[in-house]
Write a structure and sequence with these properties.
The chain is mostly helical and about 100 residues long. The protein has eight helices and no strands. The longest helix is centred in the N-terminal third of the chain and has 13 residues.
Length: about 100
């Protein structure tokens, strides 16, 4: 199983209410460091107010799932502050894939 497929499975299993496009954006961010949209950027940067303001109707119901996913599954260095996000986005895909998760 590829890293991309593994993360797709993790995200879908842990965040079933997250919209498909947001889930794919999260996977691309974790695996490749791709820039996410404003809702995920707020979540990954640990900006609760912006998470609440930027969530669309679909993702409003997934905020708790997303928070639990980040805390328990996402690589520690991939979220938590704007600085951590910038650093993570600077990683190349091969470097991002070897970072272990919080399991």
């Amino acid at each position: 199983m590829s890293q991309y497929s593994m993360w797709q499975t993790h995200v879908r299993n842990q965040c079933p209410r997250l919209s498909d496009s947001t889930a794919e954006s999260l996977v691309r961010y974790i695996v490749f460091g791709a820039r996410p949209g404003s809702f995920l950027t707020a979540a990954l940067s640990n900006d609760f107010i912006q998470v609440a303001l930027r969530a669309d109707l679909h993702n409003q119901h997934a905020i708790g799932e997303l928070a639990r996913f980040l805390e328990h599954y996402a690589p520690r260095d991939s979220y938590g502050s704007p600085t951590k996000m910038r650093n993570w986005q600077g990683l190349e895909a091969d470097k991002a894939e070897v970072v272990t998760t919080n399991e």
